[in-house]
Fold these 2 entries.
Entry 1:
Amino acid sequence: MVDEVKLIEIKEDIQADNRLVAENLRQEMSRQKTFLINLMSSPGSGKTSTIISTVEALKGDLSFAVIEADIDSKLDAEKVAARGIKAVQLKTGGFCHLDASMVSKGLQEVDFARFDVVIIENVGNLVCPAEFDTGAIMNAMILSVPEGDDKPLKYPLMFSVCDVLLINKIDYLEFSDFDMLAVKQRVLGLNPRIRIYEISAKTGEGIDVWASWLKQTVDRFVRS
Amino acid sequence: MVDEVKLIEIKEDIQADNRLVAENLRQEMSRQKTFLINLMSSPGSGKTSTIISTVEALKGDLSFAVIEADIDSKLDAEKVAARGIKAVQLKTGGFCHLDASMVSKGLQEVDFARFDVVIIENVGNLVCPAEFDTGAIMNAMILSVPEGDDKPLKYPLMFSVCDVLLINKIDYLEFSDFDMLAVKQRVLGLNPRIRIYEISAKTGEGIDVWASWLKQTVDRFVRS
């Protein structure tokens, strides 16, 4: 007589607990009028330099702090802090994602209510970060041209959970067979409401358009 | 003027929280007189077949339940249940370790107080599981001969946190350059108090000696 084997889905339990923490965090940020952005991408797609360019473009209008996450270094936080931007480094120690309670520790450390916007630079990974609600009001991701135009096919969840896609390193387009139209069609097929901006954090191209939209979005949030 | 960057060690915070949960779990198991064993190893070193051989060897003396953990299948739990052993499957969904609250869910599901011994078959991995206290009273690991005698050098933490090492698949010794003496010296150098048993879950060799020691250990725990 063999018992049926009961299956317990650990990750689903953990994610349900996390969603509650994330929802509370979102309400707290709304009360304090601080706009929280969760920025995700592969390693090396230009998250840190995009953050620096965006903050530079808006520094007369909005105040920013940055929560950097990395498995085992504080290089990115130091790069951001060197530009005079308030930064804290979360060392995840092997975890490939951030959850809402980890983000909450970082927010307390930067004293978030002093800032209009806090940007989370999530762990460089297109899988795990997409599965955990960080408590952010906006999910944004970067896809860089050298990564290739097939990424929406390979990582559909990441493209589905984001409100904004920044296509970075467009200065590489002329040396690449990256099919911009195909990418946009693939992404909009997964997520028809996503906003897509083409940028180069290196040359600055397109940063003004993205930054101007971000400014309007934060203004609407603060007035709401 | 650049602020110093504060570093927050996420994993240390999480592990501190986990140690508390683990300690409470250990006390609860002691009150109920159920002996909890955390069995760890690489994938394919023979955890499931060692569990089955051990339970078979002791079935007249002790009652057993098994908590199986796997990233994405319930094959192992079904293999154990097919032998009439009470089993539950924890599907970790990408997590490479078990922590004490995950184990606690499994223990509730098997109704642990009905059993003398519950064995946790941890996720097949020599890194992450060593870092998380599961609440077990005994940590055991398997190193199988085909994995090679260099493993204590590569994964010292795992060998350091275990109370028992089972060297499995000794039926392969004659076809292998596995240096048993060197392994034992390396392991005892890391962890002088560890017990080492040579077994073959396949042929049954050595299972009686290990099982007999386990029986005495559980008896001492129940009387304490």
Entry 2:
Amino acid sequence: MNILVVFKVLGALILFLSCALLIPIPVALIDGDGSYWPLLMAALVGAFWGGIVLYFCRSAKPDLGHREGFAVVTLGWTVFGLVGALPYYFADATPTLTDAIFESISGFTTTGATIFTEVELLPRSLLLWRALTQWLGGMGIIVLSLAILPMLGVGGMQLFKAEVPGPTADRLSPRIQDTAKLLWGVYVGLTVAEIVLLMLGGVDLFESVCHAFATLATGGFSTRNASVAGFNSAYVDWVITLFMFLAGVNFALHFAWIAGRPLKMFKNEEFRCYAALALIATLVMFFFNWGAVYEGFADNLRYSAFQAVSILTTTGFGTADYELWPFACQILLVLLMFIGGCAGSTGGGAKVSRILLIVKHATVQMWRLIHPRGVRRVKLDGRPVPEEVLQSILGFFALYLACTGGAAIVMAGLGIEPVTAVASVIASIGNIGPGLGGVGPTDNYAALPQVGKMVLAFCMLLGRLELFTVLALLYPGFWRR
Amino acid sequence: MNILVVFKVLGALILFLSCALLIPIPVALIDGDGSYWPLLMAALVGAFWGGIVLYFCRSAKPDLGHREGFAVVTLGWTVFGLVGALPYYFADATPTLTDAIFESISGFTTTGATIFTEVELLPRSLLLWRALTQWLGGMGIIVLSLAILPMLGVGGMQLFKAEVPGPTADRLSPRIQDTAKLLWGVYVGLTVAEIVLLMLGGVDLFESVCHAFATLATGGFSTRNASVAGFNSAYVDWVITLFMFLAGVNFALHFAWIAGRPLKMFKNEEFRCYAALALIATLVMFFFNWGAVYEGFADNLRYSAFQAVSILTTTGFGTADYELWPFACQILLVLLMFIGGCAGSTGGGAKVSRILLIVKHATVQMWRLIHPRGVRRVKLDGRPVPEEVLQSILGFFALYLACTGGAAIVMAGLGIEPVTAVASVIASIGNIGPGLGGVGPTDNYAALPQVGKMVLAFCMLLGRLELFTVLALLYPGFWRR
């Protein structure tokens, strides 16, 4: 384990984050609310420590191996969570440091669970920082899931190696930087497009930016107490529904259609499955809500589609209190939380492709029972899926459920009522945000005990970094030579 | 598909069940409560139809292949459920035929979910029939899981081929009948032992028999409204705890220690894991209940151990209202419902060995990430587990969860409150009985809508017959040549 190079990269990441901390300062100065000071202080603390670490590790050999990769990703996200919490803490915006860290990790993991009971009372600069943590987290996730994790072989992500655009058409660019630039171009482009469309709907620049940041990252932080319902506009709802849906798509596919190959998207099995899921979930909710909650066709479709897409993509924006919807809708929403977006998107959950492959695997198992001497393999996009990839995905799935169950017991052990305990863990590990019960769409995470918030923050990291990345560091053999 | 031989076997099974229906008649005659008539009528109906089917299919060629095996098992259990419902229906003991079928399927699948709100008002002959359905179901399960499913290759059960005792020591007897006789000997012996021990504790013969039947089958039907709490005896609680634990052990291991090889049990990894689970679950509940629910050491241990073992083995007997226990206990109990007993026992759930192998698989996946060039395989009892077996188990696990999720949506769609909807499905597919919410330990299944009862009865069959056996019949290619 080349620990020096790990620290070197971490130092560079902290310096980068310190620069990002300067971005909301102009807003603070314009508003004159005094919150430029916490942001600046956080930037200075970051720069100081990042600089020191970088200085002492400057001689590190630049060979990043397998293990170093796991360490950089997990520690990087953790450090971002810690440094990103400083502005909230310095500004006294959160009651405790734990709350600040929770909010920051919730941001960088694009979860969107909040401990703020009154978002509208926060200074705009902090709201921008909050949205920015999600947007930066989303950027990180795209590169992580399309370039880094496939190389590390985590949980079947190697399946998507070929999907990543690079200088050489359909093959993985050996240089992560090139890949990253192309994907980020798409990400920035879609963000700008959403900002423009929201502003055309009468949303002001500041709120358009914040919501576009939170949408593209499938984060879900809003600048309104009532989330997107606060705009009370069908146009805004539909724009955000569209962009949530786009944010849940593999960004390599976005790159393809922007590069003039629009059909590639529809040839992709994961995308077709994802689109079908969004559509079916919308229709099921529409069916159950019909007459029971909404009378008008347009209203019902608008709210059902928004909620289905918001939860499937793990964004977590709200336009309705789905705890008042029929019970079947609630259970369907919880199941959607497990599925999440496409691999290579900013969406969380177990990912559509994994669920799709598990379903195919189960079907093949059934087929084999009836045809004991037959041969049939699991395929994706017409190509057989390597056995190791499938095994890896099945292992991921088992770990995902085991972590959910284990964390739920811990939460309940802290005295939290069972539905809230289970829902908060599902919503955290899936990076959704709102759950059910005490953490439902009209509630927030403020009332949970401090230890519980730390458990959930850990769950967010677990889910966001595809479990293996984090758990590898806790594996007894990891640090041994 | 040799459908004739399937019907021939079904006809023989119905005839066998008709004989079993005569067993409670002496009790009815002694009590003079008039319920001999429904039992006799049910036996005659069964004998009539069984005879007709057998007569018309007498010329069937006796070759039972793979597909015929699936059909016999699934249809056999279904037909038992239907014929076994007749006494309740003819005696007007249940409000509807659906309720009678629910109760009967709950019996034969050893689930123990009941629609009777006042069991103590039922005639003793019907209570005996109710206990007998569980006991016969348990007999069926042992042979199914240790002799039939391994041959059919269902969900990794082929792993237990070598475990089955037979005339030739450790090898699978080619004749299922010999294997069955040996295992049933153990089953009957343990039942008699429990009857004797319960009677020594002052329980009368009738109730001892009924509870021993329900214990060995890990069924959970009681003759008391308050379940085992009705005896209010620490001795009875501990005897039943012991026998529930024994009923959750692979019966091939019981055969080994009775045949003079007591150490074989402790060398068995699944048994060690099962015993550890029972112990840990007891201690965790003991810890949380300490001071919060029970003050005395002995009382706390007695109630905690009983509930942990009752749920882990999927028996479902109750001595306490665990919905009043701390939240962590409740979530732990729900997780235990997924695990269940050992393969080859009468317990339900996903089985300890499957969960154990899934955990090992996930660990190996993690190891492989850190050692990308290393080779390591999943082992059980020191032997590497064949890849196909592991795949089959992972497919089983995925299907188990998919069926649970799907059925929960259907239940919620019928207007049942989410916690009750989810818990009723988990408790049915795992063959436990009591769940949470509206189907908690102090409630019953009477109030559920008729369609919901049929959905749950189907879930019981699904879980009991290890999913694949039932789902194979629904697979489009199954009935094709």
